[in-house]
TrEMBL record:
<keyword id="KW-0342">GTP-binding</keyword>
<dbReference type="GO" id="GO:0005634">
    <property type="term" value="C:nucleus"/>
</dbReference>
<dbReference type="GO" id="GO:1904263">
    <property type="term" value="P:positive regulation of TORC1 signaling"/>
</dbReference>
<keyword id="KW-0547">Nucleotide-binding</keyword>
<comment type="function">
    <text>GTPase involved in activation of the TORC1 signaling pathway, which promotes growth and represses autophagy in nutrient-rich conditions.</text>
</comment>
<keyword id="KW-0378">Hydrolase</keyword>
<dbReference type="GO" id="GO:0000329">
    <property type="term" value="C:fungal-type vacuole membrane"/>
</dbReference>
<protein>
    <recommendedName>
        <fullName>GTP-binding protein</fullName>
    </recommendedName>
</protein>
<feature type="region of interest" description="Disordered">
    <location>
        <begin position="1"/>
        <end position="24"/>
    </location>
</feature>
<comment type="subunit">
    <text>Component of the GSE complex.</text>
</comment>
<comment type="similarity">
    <text>Belongs to the GTR/RAG GTP-binding protein family.</text>
</comment>
<dbReference type="GO" id="GO:0009267">
    <property type="term" value="P:cellular response to starvation"/>
</dbReference>
<dbReference type="GO" id="GO:0012505">
    <property type="term" value="C:endomembrane system"/>
</dbReference>
<dbReference type="GO" id="GO:0003924">
    <property type="term" value="F:GTPase activity"/>
</dbReference>
<dbReference type="InterPro" id="IPR027417">
    <property type="entry name" value="P-loop_NTPase"/>
</dbReference>
<dbReference type="InterPro" id="IPR006762">
    <property type="entry name" value="Gtr1_RagA"/>
</dbReference>
<dbReference type="GO" id="GO:1990131">
    <property type="term" value="C:Gtr1-Gtr2 GTPase complex"/>
</dbReference>
Length: 341
């Protein structure tokens, strides 16, 4: 995945007033990161809250920077507050945009043109600070969902219960359950039963943010069932335990086979990618169209998959595709194969 040059770029949102009704798969999908900055509302005690400002910012920009710009998590401590909409353009197997909305924008104001932001949105991620008092953000979230669901029925809502690392292990499940229950109850009271919202406990200090983002992105991939079927077939034919299709740059996974397994194989795969990317800089081997390299590649397939692959197609010597297998990486046997899109 490569990032667009345009930190702040031209909008390619809808021009046609009816276009917001189109399913996002028909256009370049947009993903919104939203959350509430508390001090924006507590004007009377602003100086008090500002003294502790970091606790009042839910972590949207940190997420965007860690996942899409490879910023080390600890560096997010120094991020300035977002004052304008930050737009990231991502190019991977499909193009999409991530918009980071400043917490203080009042998009429910009747004078505000909602189409300029919500038109063409495929997914909305509400980043809720699990450590802060979450009552006010929950109120704002339910208000937003109720406001948007009729006009923009294709938006998929997800809540990141964020900064989960700051909560003791044995209380995490309780906090997540409490937040989910409150949102469900609030929406139920407003007449919305069984709202289609996904929840993930996330932190920029571990893999959870990448897993959460992966699930959101998968909701924007129209070909997801096709990818899953393909991965299921490869998995069965090659006797893999679990198979993921990763975007190497962001380590977001676009699809996986559909077999549930215990533990987080995603985390393992993600560490493996880091290792291979680092190692390949130093030890990568050039796979030309030689009999030798063909034999070598074939041998890997035979060892790994138990069947003979067809390597009779010429390999473009200009194209360097990574391939690696590791035996006993944290107790597992891993195989990585780069594909081009
Ligand atoms: N402990 C912990 N802190 C986090 C996490 N994510 C973000 N933070 C911290 O939260 C603070 C605020 O993060 P921002 O990303 O600037 O928050 P924001 O929601 O974008 O705020 P605005 O830019 O003002 O809209 C920073 O000090 C981050 O280091 C997390 O997962 N865990």
């Amino acid at each position: 995945m490569s990032r667009g040059e345009d930190g702040e770029q031209a909008d390619d949102g809808p021009q046609d007033p009816d276009s917001k009704k189109l399913a996002p798969i028909e256009r370049k999908p947009r993903l919104l990161l939203m959350g509430l900055k508390r001090y924006a509302k507590i004007t009377g005690v602003r100086y008090l809250v500002e003294a502790n400002e970091d606790k009042c910012r839910s972590g949207k920009s940190s997420i965007s920077n860690v996942v899409f710009r490879k910023m080390p998590p600890q560096d997010t401590l120094f991020l300035p507050t977002t004052t304008a909409i930050l737009k990231e353009s991502m190019h991977t197997f499909m193009d999409f945009q991530v918009w980071d909305l400043p917490g203080q924008i009042d998009y429910l104001d009747p004078n505000f043109d909602p189409d300029s932001i919500f038109g063409g949105v495929g997914a909305m991620v509400w980043v809720l600070d699990a450590v802060d008092n979450y009552m006010e953000p929950i109120g704002r979230l339910t208000e937003t969902i109720l406001h948007l669901q009729d006009s923009y029925p294709f938006i998929k809502f997800t809540v990141f219960i964020h900064k989960i690392d700051s909560i003791a292990d044995d209380s995490r499940e309780d906090v997540i359950r409490d937040i989910m229950q409150r949102i469900t109850d609030d929406l139920y009271d407003a007449g919305l039963e069984n709202p289609p919202i996904n929840y993930y406990g996330t932190s920029i200090y571990d893999h959870s943010i990448f897993e959460g983002f992966s699930r959101v992105m998968q909701g924007l991939v129209p070909q997801l069932p096709i990818f899953e079927n393909l991965l299921n077939t490869i998995k069965d034919r090659c006797h893999f335990e679990k198979l993921y299709l990763y975007d190497v740059y962001s380590k977001v996974y676009i699809a996986s086979d559909t077999t549930p397994i215990a533990g987080s194989a995603y985390e393992l795969g993600s560490d493996f990618i880091d290792l291979i990317v680092d190692l390949s800089e130093v030890h990568g081997w050039h796979r030309g169209n030689t009999q030798d390299s063909k034999m070598k590649a074939q041998q890997i397939y035979i060892e790994e998959c138990g069947f003979e692959a067809d390597f009779t197609q010429p390999v473009d010597p200009e194209v360097q595709l990574a391939e690696s297998q590791v035996i006993n990486f944290k107790g597992h046997h891993l195989y990585l194969r780069e594909i081009n899109v």
